[in-house]
Amino acid sequence: xKSRHPxxxxxxxxxxxxxxxxxxSECRTILLDWALSLPDGTTPRRAAAELLSLHEGRPADHPxxxxxxxxxxxxxxxxxxxxxxxxxxxx
Length: 91
Prior knowledge:
Order of helices and strands: HHHHH
Largest sheet: none
Strand content: under 5%
Number of strands: 0
Radius of gyration: 18 Å
Structural class: mainly alpha
């Protein structure tokens, strides 16, 4: 059995890189399974950054690279974005 990286305990991300013609939607599904399999206390964002570093030799246009970059990005700013008051016209 191969030794796996602690940031990819089930080897899911590594396996995604071996699948020819994998689609971005399939990579997202794999990343969700990967995130759910991380040990307690592991921050998915930090683990995704480790995997980006680990797989930096892979083609930059591979869909899993894009998904991992998204996973390490800052989340969008929280806050209200409209609501009923914003939809009403000024009278």
